[in-house]
Amino acid sequence: MSDILQLEGLEPLPPQHASLAFGVTETTPGTIYVLSVSGGIRFRPKEDRTVLFGRNRPEVHVCVGEDDRRVSRSQGQVTRHGGHWWLHNTGHLPLQLPGMRMLFSEDEPFPLDAGYTPVFISGAPRRRHLMELYVAGDDGRLPRPEPEAATLKDRPWRLGESERLALVALAERYLLHEAYPQPLAWRQAADRLCEVQPDVGWTHRKVEHTVVAVRRRMSKAGVPGLTREEVGEPVGNTLNHNLIVELLHSRTIVPPDLGLLGD
User: Are 167 and 93 in a shared domain?
Assistant: First the structure.
């Protein structure tokens, strides 16, 4: 690290430092930790302080993807401003944030909440570089370990028999673990359901009305991304994709449900 980067209050972290996902010991609110496989830094909060990261080790505080030429030499920075740390992309590749959010160099800086934020940079084929960020909150730590406590589980959504069958058909490619799954089209789902229940009279309209009713019910219950107003045009498969992701995440539908389709 060059002399110009030896900043007051900056402490290096070794490459063998434990993942920041386990929390930190810092008790000064606003202190930021930035860590990659090459090591990292800890920096106390002070207005206009900046942490630089990228693959050009001599000119950055945290080196990321040092041997991957798709990663920019100056890929980004984290700056303290207005009492918050802000993540800014200054490189060619987008930064991949939690919740499928991508931060581009043209975007406004992204405010970091207290706690843990993993950031991924997809470089050369089959290579993803992780940079971990942690902003200390009131006590700087994660909740204490509770190895004997009961596991908190998401509650599955309640579905009727016809709703479950229609949704399993819609999500068949997801439940089969295809590489890039998409929801079945209404007519495709209706055809699959007619194979299973030839006497019920499944049509593409019936499948659509069944699925839309579930989407509306879950949207009213607080699940985001299930309405046109939230997603915006063009909608495409987005609403059904978001619905299926929620149903999978909550274990409302699971791969063994393919048995309902005779798979």
Answer: no
Contact 210, 162 (CB under 8 A): yes
Query: Do 7 and 126 belong to one domain?
Result: yes
- pLDDT top residue among 202 and 22: 202
What 8-state DSSP symbol labels residue 171?
T
Asked whether the whole model's pTM tops 0.85, one would answer no
Same domain, yes or no: 173 and 127: no
Q: Which residues, 6 or more positions from 253, have their beta carbon under 8 angstroms from its beta carbon?
A: 164, 167, 168, 171, 175, 244, 247
pLDDT tens digits, one per residue of 13-62: 999 998 998 888 877 899 999 999 999 999 999 999 999 999 999 999 99
Give residue 10's domain range. 3-135
pLDDT of residue 137: 84
Give residue 77's Cα distance to chain centre: 20
| Number of C-beta neighbours around residue 114 at 10 A | 15
The pLDDT assigned to 108 comes to 93
CB within 8 A of 256, min separation 6: which ones? none
Alpha helices in 71-203 (DSSP H): 161-170, 172-175, 186-196
Locate 106 and state its tokens. 């043209």
Average pLDDT over residues 174-184: 92
User: Is 145 part of any domain?
Assistant: no
Q: Quote the CA–CA distance of 227 and 175 in Å, as a whole number.
A: 23
> What is the tally of structural domains in the chain?
2
Statement to judge: residues 131 and 218 lie in one domain = no
